[in-house]
């Protein structure tokens, strides 16, 4: 067998393995835990899958006073993320309604947020508030879209972010996630 023939076989096996590994994220799939579920869009993966790390839930999420449950990223390549979606939660605080809580959070968040817009959110049996803003996270600036919801004495934040100049490019994926997001009873 010639050297070129062996290299072609090796290249063929390498491509086949790559394609099989890519097919895992090439289709939409469901993320599910005890409280909610949503569709992970095709070509997106959880941070745990991308970085091959254990579950990172419980960490403070973007200085918003909530703890991360799950984060997904596109593209699903280490260090190359351009769009992110996170679900975070915390218990409802005594004597504080959702609107006053989110107003307090965004006034005291560091780094500071800019161009804040707060609107009511009501879709698919989900209701709460939607907040869009820009802020630095790491070195670059990002545009965020956070949806705050309450279910069974728990505050949930669905947070999307991408660079401001490409944020609209990921809107279809964000909408797919929102349409699919469901609380379990």
How would the blueprint of this fold be written?
Blueprint: H1 3-23, E1 29-32, E2 36-40, E3 45-46, H2 47-51, E4 67-74, E5 83-91, H3 98-108, E6 114-123, E7 126-136, E8 141-151, E9 154-162, H4 171-180, E10 182-183
Antiparallel strand pairs: 1-2, 2-10, 3-4, 4-5, 5-9, 6-7, 7-8, 8-9
Report on the structure:
With 185 residues, the protein is of the alpha+beta class. It has one domain (29-183): Protein Transport Mog1p, Chain A (3-Layer(aba) Sandwich), CATH 3.40.1000.10. The protein has helices at 3-23, 47-51, 98-108, 171-180; strands at 29-32, 36-40, 45-46, 67-74, 83-91, 114-123, 126-136, 141-151, 154-162, 182-183. It has a 7-stranded antiparallel beta sheet, with helices on both faces. The longest helix has 21 residues, at 3-23. It is globular, with a radius of gyration of 19 Å.
């Amino acid at each position: 067998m010639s050297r070129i023939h062996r290299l072609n076989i090796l290249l063929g096996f390498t491509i086949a393995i790559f394609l099989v590994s890519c097919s895992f994220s090439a289709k939409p799939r469901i993320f599910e835990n005890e409280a909610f579920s949503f569709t992970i869009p095709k070509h997106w993966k959880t941070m745990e899958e991308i970085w091959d790390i254990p579950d990172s839930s419980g960490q403070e999420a973007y200085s918003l006073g909530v703890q991360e449950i799950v984060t997904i990223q596109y593209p699903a390549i280490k260090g190359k993320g351009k769009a992110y979606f996170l679900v975070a939660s915390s218990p409802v605080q005594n004597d504080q309604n959702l609107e006053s809580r989110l107003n307090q959070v965004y006034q005291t968040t560091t780094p500071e947020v800019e161009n804040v817009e707060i609107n009511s959110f009501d879709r698919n049996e989900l209701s709460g508030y939607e907040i869009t803003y820009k802020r630095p996270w790491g070195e670059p600036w990002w545009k965020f879209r956070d949806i705050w919801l309450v279910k069974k004495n728990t505050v949930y934040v669905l947070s999307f972010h991408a660079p401001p100049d490409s944020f609209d490019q990921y809107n279809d994926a964000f909408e797919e996630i929102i349409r699919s997001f469901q609380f379990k009873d």
